[in-house]
Design brief:
It contains 3 helices and 5 strands. It is globular and about 35 Å long. By secondary structure, it is of the alpha+beta class. Strand 3 and strand 4 form a beta hairpin. The longest helix has 11 residues. The chain has one domain: Beta-grasp domain (Ubiquitin-like (UB roll)), CATH 3.10.20.
C-alpha cells in the first residue's frame, strides 16, 4: 500500500481525514499514484493534474523522502520506501508571494 498525503482543500473535497492508502499496480511512479488516486477518488480528477495534458497544476508540489519531485518525469520510479508504504508520497499546496 502506498501512502499519500493531500493538502487540506483536497482532503476536504475527497472527504478524507488524513493520509489515504492506495494499491498501485506495477511500478510505483508519480503517474501511477495519481491514476490510482483519481480512480479511488474521482472528485479529485482535474484538481492535481490538468484534464487534457495530465501535467501537474502549477501550485501543487510533489515530495517523497525529503526530496522535491515536482519537476521529475511522471514516469520516474519512486524510492522503495514509498513503494513499501514506509514513507508517504506528499502532495503539497505551494504558496506564492513576495
Amino acid at each position: 500500500m502506498v501512502r499519500v498525503t493531500l493538502p487540506y482543500h483536497l482532503r476536504t473535497l475527497a472527504r478524507v481525514g488524513g493520509e489515504v492508502q492506495l494499491e498501485v499496480a506495477g511500478s510505483v511512479t508519480p503517474r501511477a499514484i495519481l491514476e490510482a488516486l483519481e480512480t479511488a477518488y474521482p472528485m479529485l480528477k482535474g484538481t492535481i493534474r490538468e484534464h487534457v495534458t495530465l501535467q501537474r497544476r502549477p501550485f501543487l508540489r510533489f515530495f517523497a523522502c525529503g526530496e522535491d519531485l515536482s519537476l521529475e518525469s511522471p514516469e520516474t520510479p519512486l524510492p522503495e520506501s514509498v513503494a513499501l508504504g514506509n514513507e508517504p508520497f506528499m502532495i503539497i499546496g505551494a504558496i506564492s508571494g513576495g
